[in-house]
């Protein structure tokens, strides 16, 4: 008799455990199906989600099947979340590149299939707009590269190595090549700048010791020029930070005004399909304009490059 009672007690404990497991998995399944907007339910899912728990047999086979079902839906939701994040990043980059006003941005929240569809549509719209304005975007990248080349005294050989820069072929491949070159230049400057500064300090100290006078550039000591450039760089970073802050504040204002804080989805306001950015005149090699080739540009910075080159040459001779 005691053995039977122990067996009954064991079965009751097992039943309670299985019931708790079932309720936990059922709650997860309900949320997952909502996230996936999954209206079609199999007979098994109907039995699980029924308000009548007795319809579901608490067998190990059924619980195992339910656990696998939940795992599968969890993986799908995870994939949707990742896809949403990737699309949102691409869309934000295109908003910035195409200079789309925040009032025309798409504001959606969540990771449901409906949100994914809207994000895909918005990305496709912006990608089409990007292709329609390749010449302008490429010329913008060229101006940025020219400014970096001047600022960091990039040699002519390195400039000549970027073939797309001298091409009249305005394609997505050309734009991608310019993007990669801009990132390459930034990375190289970040890595090389400390070493170059130390070397320059040593060369200047040697020159000043030999000549018995300070080395001046545009009437100022070279070290003072370097400090001024660092201050200018920090100011640019602060201005960019402030600009981003204003853009985000404007976005939040629009969201608040349109009630997006209390909605899971906001109807987007699209630009007309045939609306494009104001395209600029394509730059031609040798053209006398603000976008002209670096090889034809004449500026005070370029003159400083010549002075620095002569200084390095003289230092090399004096140190032999």
Describe it.
The protein is mainly alpha-helical and 320 residues long. It has two domains: 2-98, no CATH class; 133-318, no CATH class. The chain has nine helices and two strands; from the N terminus they run αααααααββαα. A two-stranded antiparallel sheet has the order 1-2. A hairpin with a 2-residue loop joins β1 and β2. The longest helix is centred in the middle third of the chain and has 40 residues, at 172-211. It is elongated and about 110 Å long.
Largest sheet: 2 strands, antiparallel
Number of helices: 9
Separation of termini?
A: 106 Å
Spatial arrangement of strands, main beta sheet: 1-2
> Any idea what the radius of gyration is?
32 Å
Nearest-integer average pLDDT: 77
Helix vs. strand class: mainly alpha
Keywords: Coiled coil
Biased composition (Basic and acidic residues): 175-191
Organism: Petrolisthes cinctipes (Flat porcelain crab)
Pfam families: MAP65_ASE1
Topology:
Blueprint: H1 2-35, H2 43-49, H3 60-98, H4 113-132, H5 134-151, H6 156-160, H7 172-211, E1 216-217, E2 220-221, H8 222-258, H9 300-318
Antiparallel strand pairs: 1-2
Name its key features.
320 residues, two-stranded antiparallel ribbon, 68% helix, 1% strand, elongated, coiled coil, microtubule binding
């Amino acid at each position: 008799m005691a053995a039977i009672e122990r067996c009954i007690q064991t079965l009751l404990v097992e039943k309670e455990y299985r019931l708790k497991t079932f309720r936990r998995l059922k709650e997860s399944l309900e949320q997952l199906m909502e996230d996936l907007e999954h209206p079609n339910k199999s007979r098994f899912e109907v039995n699980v989600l029924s308000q009548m728990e007795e319809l579901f047999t608490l067998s190990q086979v059924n619980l195992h099947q339910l656990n696998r079902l939940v795992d599968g839906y969890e993986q799908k939701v995870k994939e949707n979340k990742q896809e949403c994040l990737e699309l949102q990043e691409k869309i934000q980059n295109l908003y910035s590149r195409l200079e789309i006003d925040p009032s025309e941005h798409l504001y959606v929240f969540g990771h449901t299939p409906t949100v994914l569809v809207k994000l895909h549509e918005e990305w496709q719209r912006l990608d089409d707009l990007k292709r329609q304005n390749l010449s302008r975007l490429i010329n913008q990248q060229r101006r940025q590269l020219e400014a970096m080349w001047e600022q960091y005294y990039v040699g002519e050989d390195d400039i000549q190595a970027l073939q797309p820069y001298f091409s009249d072929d305005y394609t997505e491949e050309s734009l991608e090549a310019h993007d990669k070159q801009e990132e390459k230049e930034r990375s190289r400057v970040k890595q090389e700048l400390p070493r170059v500064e130390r070397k320059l300090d040593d060369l200047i100290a040697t020159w000043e010791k030999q000549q018995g006078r300070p080395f001046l550039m545009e009437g100022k000591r070279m070290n003072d020029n370097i400090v001024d450039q660092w201050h200018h760089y920090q100011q640019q970073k602060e201005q960019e930070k402030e600009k981003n802050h204003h853009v985000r504040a404007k976005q939040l204002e629009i969201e608040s005004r349109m009630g997006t804080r209390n909605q899971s989805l906001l109807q987007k306001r699209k630009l007309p399909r045939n609306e494009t950015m104001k395209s600029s005149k394509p730059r031609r090699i040798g053209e006398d304009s603000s976008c002209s080739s670096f090889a034809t540009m004449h500026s005070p910075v370029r003159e400083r490059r010549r002075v620095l080159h002569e200084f390095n040459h003289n230092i090399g001779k004096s140190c032999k």
